[in-house]
Amino acid sequence: MSETGSHENVSEKHLPKEQENGHGAVAVADDPFADPGMPPHEPRIQDIDERAAKRSERVVAMLFTTSMLATLGFIASFVLIPVDKYIYVWPAGNIGALNFALGTTLGVALFCIGAGAVHWARTLMSDHELVDERHAVSAEPETRTKVMEDFAQGAKESGLGRRSLIRKTMFGALTLLPLSGVVLLRDLGPLPEDKLEHTLWSKGKLLINENTHEPLRPEDISVGSLTFAWPEGLEEDDEEFQKEVAKAALMLVRLEPEDIKDKRELDWSHEGIVAYSKICTHVGCPVSLYEQQTHHVLCPCHQSTFDLADGARVIFGPAGHALPQLKISVNNDGFLEALGDFEEPVGPAYWERRA
């Protein structure tokens, strides 16, 4: 092959590809991925047939109405279906009827609002294709005026003002849907009423040693020792044991009567034995660390410190108030007994707490 021919072959590799069009002319394809452009706009059936538009309007209204009914079904299910009721649903098997009803109705309510909005936008709102150049973040007054005009024009083209059926059902669906979240507040638990203000302690109930499960006598508690107790009748295998012991847990310390600074504390004690709630008034941790010389008891969670010789008042840490005291005495058989319940709720404060 000659040198000239070689140069010709190399040059041909960089020449644009030539094609013959249908009319016999030669066209040069400089860009094989040229933008084909947008297809011509075709009007929707709803744009040219008012009956079709009315049908779409009724479909949207039906979806919004279904959402309203599903929301009402959600609330009715929450109120009427027992928590412990189960139903068989294939293929999941037995599931909670309440959870199934809540999930189904809430899902339908949300889906129908979304489907209604999408169907409305695709069939009834304006279908014109517009190009709007980007502008600076800080818009000029003329731009803001144009935006408001475009908004008004969009509202007009959406038919929201003219199609009252859609407007009313959409607002109805959007108004009812938040009620689902309000009703869910019930699952925060049953109303406590005054349950947080009372424990199992009552007049005449014996103090049961937490370790031996035997009634306590004054001689069982020596000076400087810390003893834990719960009320008579509470058993570890009880279904409500954890809930009740969390409120009624008690700690007892024997002090020298002359070391007790608070007169009421002295009156509520027996031979220097004072009984206080074991539950810290900060976040409810069990108080369990006792220092004999200072009569201070420490909560291990956040170091709240209480003075058991001075009404269990807070002397350090984040706890908000003193530990509640239980008034005790000795019955005819020589066992320590409660003379009532705690005078105030045990544990952390809560917003319904009475002053």
UniProtKB/TrEMBL annotation:
It holds the Pfam family QcrA_N. Residues 1-44 are annotated as: Disordered. It is a multi-pass membrane protein. Its main location: membrane. It is found in: Cell membrane. Keywords: 2Fe-2S, Cell membrane, Disulfide bond, Electron transport, Iron, Iron-sulfur, Membrane, Metal-binding, Oxidoreductase, Respiratory chain, Transmembrane, Transmembrane helix, Transport. One of its GO terms (molecular function) is metal ion binding. InterPro entries: QcrA_N, Rieske_2Fe-2S, Rieske_2Fe-2S_sf, Rieske_Fe-S_prot. Residues 242-337 form the Rieske domain. GO terms for cellular component: plasma membrane. The chain crosses the membrane at residues 59-83, 95-118. Belongs to the Rieske iron-sulfur protein family. This is Cytochrome bc1 complex Rieske iron-sulfur subunit. The lineage of its organism: Bacteria, Bacillati, Actinomycetota, Actinomycetes, Kitasatosporales.
